[in-house]
Amino acid sequence: MRLRNIPRADRILSEHQKVIKNEAEKKGKWSMVFENEHPVYVEIGMGKGQFLTTLAEKNPDKNYIGIERYSSVLLRAVERLDAIEEKQGVKLENIRFICMDAADVPDVFEEEEVAGIYLNFSDPWPKKRHARRRLTSREFLKRYEKILDEDGVVEFKTDNQELFQFSLEQAKEAGWNLKAISWDLHHDKEMCRGNVMTEYEEKFSSQGNPICKMTAAPSVKDKGISA
């Protein structure tokens, strides 16, 4: 899908207080950024921000960071946040945004600094030669493993069943524990409890496409933590 460039995006993002600049300098210091010790959750490839802003509203005792590679997409998330804050007359202080590549997460977060990672409807990169770019590939799982805390998990949702099968296989090969799996989330009463939908999820599910979800965690051994 071709992204429409929005000329004003870079300027607005550079001036917005909730958009982090020089993000590598915040490594190990996110509690200082949020001015509290609440757990930090990261959504990688956050799109227009519906999922993360909803979580931030529902959970004031948790901190959320949205990562998006494209400034024109991140702009939409920032505008959504501004609209929510204006309507409510209250600032959401538990959310921040970063415009960056997902491959750089170990440069931005310290070991065990992240409580959870959300991957929602990630680019499937369908060509085999691009498999390493998929956000659920072993290469990316190794990156997540570095920054997740002892109880940290990755939650992944997609409507692409081939990508979901690939993700399950990659998690197993990487030695991760598959804590929960559903090939039809919206008809799974247990896993669907408390589910927050993204824009894509609403669109795809309304078209009758089943939504797949897995929750996975690095094994204790792989994380270097003694049992």
Describe this protein's structure.
By secondary structure, the protein is α/β, with parallel strands linked by helices. The chain has helices at 9-15, 30-34, 50-58, 71-88, 105-108, 138-147, 161-173, 189-192, 199-206; strands spanning 40-44, 63-68, 95-99, 114-120, 148-158, 177-182, 212-217. A seven-stranded mixed beta sheet has the order 3-2-1-4-5-7-6, with helices on both faces. Mean pLDDT is 93; it is low at 221-227.
Helix content: 25-40%
Mean pLDDT: 93
Largest sheet: 7 strands, mixed
The backbone outline, from C-alpha atoms, is globular
β-strand number: 7
| Rg over CA atoms | 17 Å
Give the termini distance in whole angstroms: 46 Å
Number of helices: 9
- Strand content range: 15-25%
For this entry, what is the oligomeric state of its chains? single chain
User: In terms of structural class, how would the helical and strand content be classed?
Assistant: alpha/beta
